[in-house]
Amino acid sequence: MLRRAARFDSRQKGYASVMSAATLASSPRFLMCPPQHFAVTYSINPWMDPAKWADDGAALQARAAQQWMALHATLLEAGAMIETVPPLEGAPDLVFTANAAVVLDGKALLARFRHPERQIEEPVFAAGFHALAERGLIDEVIELPRGVALEGAGDCLWDRARKLFWMGCGFRSDERAAREVEAAFGVPCLPLRLSEASYYHLDTAMCALPCGGVIYYPGAFTPAALDTIHAHIAPADRIALTPDDAVRFAANAVVVGRSIVLSSCSPELRHTLEARGYRVIETLLDAFQRSGGSACCLTLRLDHRAQAAQAQRRAS
Ligand code: ARG
Fold first, then answer.
1. Are β-strands 164-169 and 189-193 bridged in parallel, bridged antiparallel, or unpaired?
2. Is 297 a catalytic residue?
3. For ligand 1, is residue 213 a contact (CB within 6 Å)?
4. Is the pTM of this model over 0.85?
5. Of 43, 93, 298, which is best to mutate to test ligand 1, by the most ligand atoms within 8 angstroms of its C-beta?
6. Does residue 271 carry a catalytic annotation?
7. pLDDT tens-digit profile of 171-212?
8. Residue 180: which domain range?
9. Is the minimum distance from the CB of 114 to ligand 1 under 6 angstroms?
10. CB 252, CB 207: distance < 8 Å
11. Residue 188 is part of a domain; what is its CATH number?
12. Of the four listed, 132, 236, 286, 316, which is most buried by Cβ atoms within 10 Å?
């Protein structure tokens, strides 16, 4: 595993050497965490069944490692740069770096987790962000007040077309965290109450595309949250998922330029996204879904800029 990770690094350098400085500077940059210690050893969402995981043991671990490497390679091929935080034994969910922090304009607002099982990740992610700051990849690391839960970008999606954050609450993050996000980043943050335990983080049920389209699963939201969504997103930009696409976590997608990377989706959803000009890349991540996660959960975008969103919007 370590050897393979090293190979990825040299491959990334290979990419770097053939890319111009300007391309590199504008490349999407993600944070990931290798899955050496990934497992399902406790249950904090309905997908997690430690007994079932233990039954399949080593085979699932190997499958997870192979699927993570395929995702890593796919993102690199799509033009992304990837930073990593080191895995930690006893912290199996550290692979889900989307939960590490909310990041915008070079600022990282570190997560505070709801469950003790994941609170052990907080110092690891804090150290990871301070290391990124030392390398000039992050300008400022901000802490939430104690007692306010916010599980990073997994519950706080940047909508670059609308210049706002959508924040999931009800299962993991506290509604009042929205005010902290607004204070930290100076942009609106709209809380959306989640109603279905299987879609406990916002990124399991929603994905805001750069074109203004928004993938979402209506069944995951309260009626009030759906009203908020519909008030801000025009019908032509609503890409509502069927239960079949929702349950394969098709909303848990990573956007890299015009590529959308996800575990799997129906031919209908693929067609809808292709009609909007995207290339849809499926890379199966079912081993991670045993923990309630998929593509987006395994990544954290580090380079979103509110200013760039403004310029992009004016240009289109
Ligand atoms: N087992 C993890 C948890 O329950 C999965 C986290 C998935 N991450 C995400 N951004 N949805 O916290």
1. parallel
2. yes
3. no
4. yes
5. 93
6. no
7. 999 999 999 999 999 999 999 999 999 999 999 999 999 999
8. 5-315
9. no
10. yes
11. 3.75.10.10
12. 132
